[in-house]
Structures
1.
Amino acid sequence: MTAVPTKPVFLTGASGALGRVLAKWLGGLGWTLVMTDIAAFPDPLPPGASFTKADLNDGPTILRLAEGCGAIVHLGGVSVERPFEEVLGPNIRGLFHIYEAARREKARVIFASSNHSVGFHERTESLPADTQFLPDGFYGLSKAYGELMGRLYWFKHGVENVNLRIGSACPEPVNNRMLASYLSYADFSRLVVACVTAGQTGSCVVWGASKNSRMTWWRDDARAELGWEPTDSADPYAGQLAGKVSGDPVEERYMGGAFCSIGYSRSAFAPAGLFDSAKG
C-alpha cells in the first residue's frame, strides 16, 4: 500500500492527456490534489481535488495555488515542437514560477522533462543519465533548461527535484521507434508516485520508458533509489511494428525521431558529432 502524502500535491497541466491519467490515478489512491491548466479540466474531479484555470505565466496565481503543497508535479507547458516565442512563456518563464513556488513551500518538484532534451543523440548510442544535452528543437531546449533550473534550485536552495525524461507516453506504441521509447500510462503513473513518496532525492534523472527489450538507448538513472521499476512493455507489439518506419533518414537516425526533422536544414547524412560542425 502506497503511503498517502500528508500535504496536497500540486498538479500542473492537469487537463492534458498525461494530467488526466495522473489525476485519476492519484485520486484513486486518495491523494489530495490541487490542479491547474490553461484549459478547463474535462473530466469529473477526483474526490478531494480542486481545479483552477490558470496560466503558468501568472506568477502570483501559481504561488497562491502552491501554498501548503508538499510536491509539485509539473506537466504543464507547451508539449510539442513549436516556434520559440510560443515555448518561451509557459516553458521558460512558467517554470521559473514553479521553482519559486517550490522554494517558498519547500516542496519537491517532479518535472516532466523529455527525451527531446537529448534528441540529437544517435540511436546507436547508450546514454547514462548524466549525458550531455543535445536538444532537437525549441521544445527539447526548454526541457534541458528545465533540468538545469532544477540543478540550480537544488544546489542554491535545497529544492529537491526529479526530472522524468519521458520517452513516448501513450496508450500503446504506434511505430518502430516506440518499441524502444514507449512508456505506458500505468508505468508513468507508478513512476510519479515513486517520485513523490521516495526519501531524499536531491536533483536526479529517470529515463521514462517501459520495460522494452529494445530499450538500449538509455541507462544508469535514479530509478533504484526511487524504488521504481517499469512492468509494462512494448514487446507484444514488435511483430506488427518492426517495419513501421518513416523513410525519413533524419527521423530514423536520431533518438528524437520526427522532432529532429522539423526545420532540419543540414544534409541528412552529414557527420553529426560536436567536432564535425565544419564538415556539415
2.
Amino acid sequence: MSSLIQWMLLRLALLLSSVGFFLSCWIIVPAPTMQLLPLGVGVPELSPWLLVLNAIPLGIAMLQAIPLALQGMHYSLLQRLVLGASLVGLFLSVLPLVQLPATEQRLAAAMVDELGKDYTAGISNEVLSKMRSHPFILADAFRGITLSPVRYTSGIPFAAPFDYAPFDYAPFDYAPFDYAQGKPLSMDIYRPLKIGHYPALVIIYGGGWQSGTPQHHADFSRYIAAQGYTVFAIAYRHAPRYQFPAQLDDVRAALTFIQQHATEYETDLNRIALLGRSAGGHLAMLAAYQSDTLPIRAVINYYGPFNLAEGYRKPPKPDPLNVRAVLEAFLGGSPDAVPEQYAKASPVSYVKRSLPPTLLIHGSRDHIVQVDFARDMCQRLRAVGNTSVLLEIPWAEHAFDTIFPGISNQVALYYTERFLAWALR
C-alpha cells in the first residue's frame, strides 16, 4: 500500500474515531442543556450504529499498526490517537448492549411478579403471533421495525373549548365544534385494515404541556393499530396560555367523544387503555384515576411525572429543561404560591384502592423526570393493593422512544404490547 493511501486512510480513521468518541461519550455524560439533550437521548439508542462507527477506524489503525509492530517499529502519534479514541468509543458504545441481557431478565421478572407467571396464557394465539418475538432484535436496530398497513384518519374534531384566559373558564365549558368561539381540538385515528370491533388505546403526547401534536410517535400508533387496536391520538390545549386543569378537561372531552362514537370507530368501550409520554403520561394517569371518567382498564406512563411539588423542589442535576419554569408555566406559579394546583395536578394525590392496572416505563438516566419518582409511585400503588409494574431501563434518558427502532424502545414495545394484551383481553 502506498504511503499516500496510508496517509489518507489514517486521516479518515482519525476523523471517524474523533466523531465516534465524541458521540459515544453521551452514553454516560448527562446533557447539561436543552440543545445537547438530543445527544443524551439518542446516542444510547443508536449504540449498535456507534459500534460500527468506532470499529471502522480501529480496523484501519490496526491494519497499519500490526506490520509496524512486526518490524519492531513504533506507532505514530496519529495511530495512537486513533487507536485510543476508537477503543474508548468502542467500550462506551457497547455498554447498553452489555447491560441488555440482565435488563431483559429483570424486566421479565417484574412483569411476572406483578401479573403472574401465566399472564400471557389468556392472550389468544392470534394476538401473540403478531407481537415481537424478542425484547431486542439487532437487525431491527439497523433496518427499522416493520410497520404493517392500517387505516388512518386524521384531524377528527372532538371539541372546541372556549378560548378564555387562564383560570377564567369553567371545566368542561365546551362549545362542541364551534370554531368561531372556541379553540378546535382534534384527534388522529388508526385502525386495523379489517373492519371489526377492537379494544382501544388512547395516546397522549408529551412536550412539557407546552407543545406537541397527535402526529407525534406516529410509528408507534401505526404499530399498535396493526396489532388489533383502535388507536386514538388526541390533542389538548398547551401551557402557558392554558393552565391546568385545561389539559385534563381536554383529555376527558376526548374520552367522551370516543364513548359517543364508539360504534363508528369500531371501539369496544369495555376495553380501553390510556398511554402517555412525559406530560402525556401524567395526563393519562390523572384521567385514568378520576372516579367520574369513562371506565379505563389500564394506563401506561412512559417517563411522566407523578409528584409535581416534589419534582419542583428536587429538580434533576443537570436540569436541561428547567423543570421549575415548565411547572410554573403549567400550574401558574411555584408550590408555595399555588399549592392546591400542585396537589390537584399530581397523580400521587389520587392513589387509592381499585385503580386500573398501571405500567410505568422509565429510564434510569432520566434528567427531566427522575426515576426515583417512578419508584415511589409504583410502591404507593402497590401498598394499597393496586397492580403496578415498573420497568426501569438503565441506560435510557427521557424520551428514549423518540428513536423507534432504538434499543430502549424495542424493549419497551415488547412489554407494552404484552401488558396491553393482558389488560384488555
3.
Amino acid sequence: MKYDLICIGMALVDSIIRGVDPKPVSASGYLAETGTLNAGGEAVNEAAAASKLGLKTGILCALGNDPAGEIVLKELEKNGVDTSSVVRTAATPVTTMFVREDGTRQSITNQAHRFNFHPEKDPALFTEARAVILGSLFRAPFDDPAVIHAVVSSAKAAGEMVIADTKLPNFRFLTLEDIRESLPLIDYITPNEDEARHFTGEDDPGKMAEVFLSYGVKNVIIKLGSKGCILKNKEMTLRIPACPVHAVDATGAGDNFAAGFVSEILRGTRREEALRFANACGAICTTAAGAGTALQNREQVLEFMRTHEKSNL
C-alpha cells in the first residue's frame, strides 16, 4: 500500500483569538490576550496528527493559491504528510475562533467554506491506503449524498477501512436518512456529543449510538469531552473516562482523537486500548492553542498515559 491513511476533507486557516475583553478600548476596538494563525480543518488536523504518530499519511483537500493556502501546505509538509494530491483553487477558507478561558470556543465561517471539490472523480487518489478518514461528514465536500456514496463505495471496493468523523452542517443540511445508502459502508463514525444529539435527536449517548447502528454503521464512537468517550456496536459497549488536563483550547481535540484511534487500530491494538490512546491524544491537544501545536509523537502520548495512570493510583 502507498499509505497507511488518507484524509479527505476540509483544509483552512484558523484565526484563534483568546481572552477577549468585552469592554471596548475605543469606539470600534477590543483587546484580547493572544491572536494566532494556525493551519486547520478536519482533514489537515487528522493528517498531521496521524503522521506525527507514525503513520504514512496522505491528504486529499483543496487549498487556495493564496497566503492562507501556503500556511496550511507548509504545516502539512513540516509534519511529513504527502501533499501530492492537494487541489489548488482560488481561495482558502479562514475561520475566526473566539476561545474562552475553559478552552471552549465559538467560530465564524465564510462563503469560502462552501467550496466543494470532487474527490470522487479520481478514486486512485484515495484507494491506495489501508484506511481513509472522511473529515468531516456533513461538511464540504461531504455534504452531497452522491459524493459521499461514491467515495465510501470506492474505498470499500479497495478493501479500505472507512472512518467518518462528523461535523454539524453549516451551509447545506443533510440528515442520516439522506445518506442512508452510505452508512452501512462506514466502519467507524466518530461524532462528538453535540453532533450525535443533532443527528439522532437523542440525549443519552447509548441511545445516540443505537440510532447510528440502526442505519448500518458498524461501530459508533461518541466523543464526550471531559466525560471521555463511548464505543458501541451490536456486540459490545465500551465507556472510557477522559484524561483530566487544564484545557487551553479545544480546537482540533476531536481530530487528534480520531487520528490517535485510527493509528492504534492500524497497529493492531485492541479497541479499548486504542480508545484510551485516542483520549490521551485529544487531551494533549487541548493544552495549547491550535489543533496541531501540542501533540508531538507517539512516545509523548504513551508517556502521558503512563503519567496519568500513576496519578490515578
4.
Amino acid sequence: MTKNGTYGDQRSPTAKRRATGENIVEDAEAVNLAADWADISQGLRKDLGQQLHSQWIKPIQLGTFCKETGTLDLFLPTEFSANWVQDRFADRLSLAWKIARAEVRHVRISVHPGRRQISELSISGEPMLRGGGRAANDGAEGGMPMAAGTIGAQGFTSSVGLDPSLTFAAFVTGKSNVLACNAAERMAKVEAPQFSPLYLKASTGQGKTHLLHAIGHAYLGAHPRARIFYCSAERFMVEFVQALRQNETIEFKARLRGFDLLLVDDIQFIIGKAAAQEELLYTIDALLAEGKRLVFAADRAPQALDGVEQRLLSRLSMGLVADMQPADIELRRLILDSKLTKFAPLEVPSDVIEFLARTINRNVRELVGGLNKLIAYAQLTGQEVSLQLAEEQLTDILSANRRRITIDEIQRTVCQFYRVDRSEMSSKRRARAVVRPRQVAMYLAKVLTPRSYPEIGRKFGGRDHSTVIHAVRLIEDLRQRDADMDGDVRSLLRQLES
C-alpha cells in the first residue's frame, strides 16, 4: 500500500510500457557511453602514460549527456582535480569524444555533485588563477585585474592558466637552449621585439612549453593590462570547428584578434586542417599588423611541417626560428642541481647525480621525473639515496634512455684512446700499459651495458667474473683519487655516448 492509500502502481498499462521503454533506452545509452569512455580512457592511457592516467583520467566519472545541447558532463572528486584536468586535458577529452560520437559537441568538466567544493585559494589577497597562477593587478584603482591566460567571457569558454612554476627564473640555460631563452625573454620585454613571430623548435621534453609559460608570466609583469591567450594547436582547431558549427566565426575572429600576446603550443597538430590553417594565417597577419606578439612551439622546424599551406609556413618562419637542442650532460647536471634545492636538507650523493645526468639523456622531463621518483621512494621507505637504489628503482627510465653500446664498440674506442692493439683486450699480457686500458674497458662495459660480470669476462679473453669485479672497483677508486684517470674516463664516456 502506498502513502496515499492506493495499492501498487496505479499508472495505465500504456504509461507503464512507455516508462519501461524510456528506462531501457536510457540504460542502453548509459551502457554505450560507458563503452565509449572505456575506449577513450584506454587510448589516453597509451598517450599519457600510466602515471598521469591513473592520477588524473582514471578518477573521472561519467555524468549525463544532454542530446539537445550536445553536452556531456564529466565529474571529478575535487575542484583542484577538475581545474587541473580542464586546463591540461580538456582538448584531448573533447576531441576524443567528438571522434567517438559526433553528437557530443561540448564536454563539461566539473566537481562531482554532492562533493564539497573547495574555495579558491589566495596568497597576499591576490586571487588565484584556475591554473594555479595569480591574477595580475592592472595597478589602476578600482580597475579589474586581467587574468593571465584567461579567455574572453563571450567565448573560448574554458580558461587556460599559466603554470606558476614555469618562469624564466626556474629555467636552466646552457649552450643548447640559450638562444631560445634569450629570444623568449626579449619577446616579453616592454619594448617591441626585433622579430615576431618567435618559433621555438624542440623535441619532446626539452623545455619549449616551459618557455611559452615563462613568456606569458613575464609579459604580464611588463604589461599588467595585457590580454594573453595560451592554447595548443589542437585546442585552437576544436574552438574553430565549434565556431563554424554554431555560425559564430565572426565572433571567434574578433575575440582571437583582441589578444596582445598569442602563445600556441604543438603547432605540428594543425597539419592537414585547411580551414583552421587559413584562419590562423589571417590571425597572424592581423595581429602582426597591429604590432601584437606571437609565439609558436613545435617539435619540428616550419619547413618540416608536412600538410601545411605554404603561406602559413612562410608566416611561421618569417620571424625567428630558435632551435633548442637536446640538453648536453653539463646542462643536465645543472638542471639536477637546481632541482635539488627544493629537497634540502636531503642529501643526494654526487655519484647519483652524475649517474642520472649521464644515463637519462633523452629529454629533461624524464630526467627531472627520474630524480623526483628516486627521492620520493627514498623518503617514503626511509632509505638513503644511493647509486644502487637508483639502478633498482629507475630501471624503466634507464633502459629507455640507454643507447645500445656494445662491448666491441667500447674495446675499439678504448684501444684507440690509449693507442694499444685491439688484440690486447683478450691477451694474457700483464704489462701496465696493457692492463690499465683493459680494466678501463671492463669498467665502461659494466657502466654502459646491461651485461653481467661473467658475460663481460668472456668478451675479454674468457676471464673470470672476479677479475671483472676487481677491475670495476679499481677504476671506481682511481676516479676518486686520480684526476687524470677521472678525466680519461669522462672523455671516453663522452665519445661513446655521443
